[in-house]
Amino acid sequence: MSLLCTLTIYAQQWQRTGGPIGGLGYNLKIDPTNNQIIYITDALSGIHKSTDGGATWIPKNNGITSRSGDSNDAIPVFTVAIDQNNPTTIWAGTEYDSGIYKSTDSGENWTKKNNGIIETNIVFREISVVNGDSNTLFASGEVPTGNQGNEFEKVNGVIYKSTDGGENWSRIWSGNSLARWLCIGGNPINLVSSTGIFDREATNTVGMGIMKSTDGGATWNQSNNGITGSLFIGGMSDSSTPGLLYIATGNNAEVNLDTPIKGGVFKSTNGGTTWTQVISSSDVILPGYTEDVFNAVKIAPSNNNIVYAASAYAFYRSDDAGATWTGHRGGSLSSPSPWGPSGIRAGVPIEITIDKTNPDIVYAANYGGGIFKSTDGAKTWQVLGTGYSGATIHKIAPDPQNTSAFLTIGRSGPFKSTNNGTTYDGLYYEEAGHAEWYGAAVHPTNSNTLFISDEHEGLILKSTTGGTSWTTKFNQPNATASVFNQRHGAKELIISKSNPNVIYAGFAYQFFYSDPDNTTFPNSFGVYKSTDAGETWTQSGTTGISATNLNITALAVNTTDENSVYIGLRGDGLFHSTDGGANWTNIGQGMPDQTIHGIALADNNSIIYAATKSKGVYKSTDNGNNWTQVLSEVNTSTDFPTKLLMSIAVNPTNKKNIVVGDIHTGVYMTTDAGANWTNINQGLANRAITSLAFSSDGKTLFTGTKGSGVYSYNTTTLAVDNYSNLSILKNAYPNPSSGKITLDLQPNTFQSLEVEIFSITGKRILKKSYKVKNNKVEINLQHLSKGMYIVSYPLLNGLKKSSQILIE
What we know:
Elements: E1 15-16, E2 25-30, E3 38-42, E4 46-50, E5 58-59, E6 77-82, E7 90-94, E8 100-103, E9 111-112, E10 123-130, E11 133-148, E12 153-162, E13 170-175, E14 179-184, E15 191-195, E16 201-202, E17 210-213, E18 221-222, E19 233-237, E20 245-249, H1 252-255, E21 265-268, E22 276-279, E23 296-299, E24 307-310, E25 315-318, E26 326-328, E27 330-331, E28 336-337, E29 348-354, E30 362-367, E31 371-374, E32 382-383, E33 393-398, E34 406-410, E35 413-417, E36 425-426, E37 437-442, E38 450-454, E39 459-463, E40 471-475, E41 488-495, E42 503-509, E43 527-530, E44 538-539, E45 552-557, E46 565-569, E47 573-577, E48 585-586, E49 596-602, E50 607-612, E51 617-620, E52 628-631, E53 645-651, E54 654-662, E55 666-670, E56 678-679, E57 689-694, E58 700-705, E59 710-714, E60 732-733, E61 740-744, E62 752-759, E63 764-771, E64 776-780, E65 787-794, E66 800-807
Parallel strand pairs: 12-16
Antiparallel strand pairs: 1-59, 2-3, 3-4, 4-5, 6-7, 7-8, 8-9, 10-11, 11-12, 12-13, 14-15, 15-17, 17-18, 19-20, 20-21, 21-22, 23-24, 24-25, 25-26, 27-28, 29-30, 30-31, 31-32, 33-34, 34-35, 35-36, 37-38, 38-39, 39-40, 41-42, 42-43, 43-44, 45-46, 46-47, 47-48, 49-50, 50-51, 51-52, 53-54, 54-55, ...
Keywords: Repeat, Signal
Pfam families: Por_Secre_tail (PF18962), Sortilin-Vps10 (PF15902)
Organism: Polaribacter pacificus
């Protein structure tokens, strides 16, 4: 007898921590009738809405069917627009599937409106509604080509127009660079479109700059008179003053050329016909610093003389219509850091939004950062609220001395939580001011000693202050961020538990987390080792691995012997060293997949588990001489035929409890050393798993995702995806029952047993402690109505067992 149902006990779900901050934030729009209502978009986690001025955020994606990402769970909303004529009407545009959605109830529900859209892979970057005419609107976007430029993909652009409230669309422009912001003049036949962005290249290489139409979009002409340098327009802002426009220009690929092409800020007073530069890359607004790429600009709606411009490094303000500017960034004059809240990398500002009555209240939505607010004119910033994270996590490193603390690192930088992820402290201080990150580790006996590594420049940093200050201890000399194919970092950082002075770092080429299925990559630098607590580093030997690509994607150290080290390579197998990395032996030849993404040691290091990229999990009990597959790579009832495993972890207090993370289908758990596995995804909105780690007491499991930050899971109870996976156990009888049941327990189990009874909807009905007599517990449930119930009780290993009971 079994029950086919997809419900689970509520207490047994993953919990979204809502952090750390990060993601691909794009738009931030404020309701024109109520400044407490704010909408934000994220290319990974969709639309979130706040009704309390940004203090808290709630996802609002009902009806948006667009999905993307490694697990098809990401909600790729790039742009949101509020109809100023009717603020309960909201528009949204999605990424890579040409999706346009309309809501008529302030974002509660959405309906797709893309009739007439020709291309199938458009990334919509802006939707604009004509003031005074809700039926006329424009949608601007990019059309990917799949062709790589010097740094980024080369793309084309399109603009669509609707004259019937979005029911039908027609294409009115296409060109060689993506279409971004659209400014609509007082007469809606006058249109000014900006093209380009900092992280895309144009199919014509040089970009197109400003496109202008004077006939409602029927014809277009370039309008770049006065624009010098880059023709990639990061930001554009119009105003209530007729003809007044500002643009911010620059592209990261252009500034890395042998002859850099730099950006600036430009102003037009005649609707974009001509332009005057008001900030140049050579202007020294901040001491010792010049700007190359400007990403956003905005005119204050209450005072058109006040203008803000921003880059990834600084925020600028003018109070005299662009004649002079004041710059703001973090840190001190001797040790400057980018703008943003203390300890946090703000990322790249994509949109600036200014309060309609107070020009000192400024909001910024950012790539790779978060949503921030300033109340003093961009001098200082605060993180805007909780409950929203689009962060991609690369590594979670628990604190062995604090069961509630962990260090995490990803695209938005290093963060530390000391309360199981309820709050996060940013650790982006001093020398930790880099753009992309790989690894993290916490000292086994000193919580203040932390290590992190970047992804591009081969850096290893150390902190002895809990992350409030950092010192660079190693810089791989052949890794450099400025050359695309020379970006490498220490993906793995492991501190020996038996001798914390010994630390191993495994180097790999960039993009492991963004493209884990890639099979074409340059050779990296193998293993580096420190024997003085990270102060100095030397390259380990390559004897036995000299013929490999030296891309280390997994690393484990014997907990009782710092010289016993295991490494997994990208495409080249699993190796073991017994002499601290001087020599290596291939022990993974018995596995069909030679790309190893995770290694875990159990039972006093006598058992090795290897998570392969595409062939599941293998187990060896004889140090790699023989391997047995314990978790198949095959997926069923899914869009992904095979798993792509990213991480593996062993519970430190129960070595038979092992978890693996698949970037396609979530988390798998075994409590019997691999004999049986259960997919535990309840509550996990994003199954794109990048990292797994247990707390030091084994009671909490943390997972990092690609686009939803960190989730936590209470391992003292086990969840399953559906109750059909639960058999009717023989130790609970009679079943069906008239109400009196007996639990037949293992000998010498407990003197008393706490039993919980749940309804099939997950509501707890009973929690009571029963005496155990002769290894049995008698339970009287005659007071319950007829139906199916769940009986849950603890096992010796601290986990819980749940079984079905039918009361007739």
